[in-house]
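DM between two lab members

TW: hey, do you still have the Flavodoxin-like domain-containing protein entry open?
JB: yeah, one sec
JB: this one, 149 aa:
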Amino acid sequence: MDINLIYASTSGNVEIVMESIAKVLSTKGFRTFLFRAERTPIEAVKNNDNFIFGTSTWQHGQLNPFFLKLYEQLNLLDCHHKKAAFAGLGDRRYEPVLFCEGIEKIRKLWLKKGGKEIGSVLRIEGEPYNQLDSIVLDWVNKIAEKMKG
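TW: and the structure you got?
JB:
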């Protein structure tokens, strides 16, 4: 099964998480494809069915600017028969109520457009490096099982 991981990363934290997710999924027999959101044509979403979206949250609960163009294009799609999981990074020190709101915006749009959500949202607090072999790994294992089922 192919899974397309589409993400926006500025400091590299989201990219590290998505690469880690792709690596684990590959060991479980999935074919993974990583796409930076700002370089992803909407055809990558139109022509595929399984996704993991990842982004950080900017300013006051805003979407990472690198995801904006694709987000606007997603709003024009019918996502029925497509599945996605969601991974967000954030920092509660800034605005606890808007923690990981960037990925929430993508998730809500996906559901509004008819897409199916797989599993719970992965929410990573702060730097991800010490969470790759624990929180991220546990989440990926659960997502892999749900994607297969």
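TW: got it. The chain has a mean pLDDT of 94. The chain is about 35% helix and 25% strand.
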